[in-house]
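From the thread on structure requests for the teaching lab: each student submitted one protein with a one-line request. Submission from student K.M.:

"Model NAD(P)-dependent dehydrogenase (Short-subunit alcohol dehydrogenase family) from Tahibacter aquaticus, C-alpha cells only."
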Amino acid sequence: MATLPADWTPAAVALKGRTILITGATGGLGRASALACAEAGACVVLLGRKVPALEKLYDELEALGGATPAIYPLNLEGATPADYEQLADTLEREFGGLDGLVHAAAHFAGLTPLREFKPEEWMRVLQVNLNGPFLLTQAVLPLLQRSADASVVFVEDDPARVRKSFWGAYGVAKAALTGLVAMLHEETENSTVRIASLLPPPMRTALRRMAYFGENTLDRPEPAQFAAAVVYLLCSEGKAARGQLLDLRTTH
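Reply posted by the TA:
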C-alpha cells in the first residue's frame, strides 16, 4: 500500500516532455487529471466518446499555454482490438511514443440484482471497465516500453463496497481489475514500465449520484482534489508506488 507524501504538489515541469493518454477524459476524475497533467507540463491526449465535451476540454488545456493537447474520440463500449491497435499506431505516428496511460473511464449501470441484469448491459459494463483497460494497455505497451520511464495508472473502487449485493457487472469488473493490475506489475517489474493503481474516496461524480441517489453529492469532495495523486503516479517520483495501490481514503 502506497501513500502520497505529505503536502505533495506537482512541480510545473513534473511531466514536461511526456505524452500522457487519459481515457474517460471528460468525466470527473479524468477531466481533473487532464488539467493537472497539462499544468505539470505533459502533452495530454484526451480519449472519450463525446466530441463536443472533448473539444471544450481541449480549449481549456490549450489556454494553459503548455504543450498542445490532442483529441482522440473513441467509444470504449464498442471498441475492438483493431481500434486499439489503430490508436497505438496514431500515437506513434503523431507523438513518437507514449509515456503514461491513465484508465479513468468508467461505466456504471446502476444498482441492479444479478437476476435482473440485462445481458447486453452486462457485456457493455465489462467492455468499458475491464476489457477496454486490458486491450488498450496491451496495444500501447510496446510504446510504453520504449519510454525511459513510463507508467500506467488504473483507477480502482472500494472493494468493501462494490463487491456487495446489487453492484453487478461493475463490481465484478473492478474485482477482476485488481487481478489484472497485479499480473501486469509482475510481468513488467523489470522493465521501464510502472504499474500502479489509485483508490480515491467517494467523490462528487455522476457515478456516485447513480449509486447513492438519496445522498447529497455536494457533500463529497471534487475530483480535482485528487488529481495531484495521478500526476504523482505518472512522474518520476511515483517510482516509490510501483506495483502498489495508492489509497487516498485515509485522508478524507
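TA comment: The two ends are 17 Å apart (CA to CA). The domain at 19-251 is CATH 3.40.50.720 (Rossmann fold).
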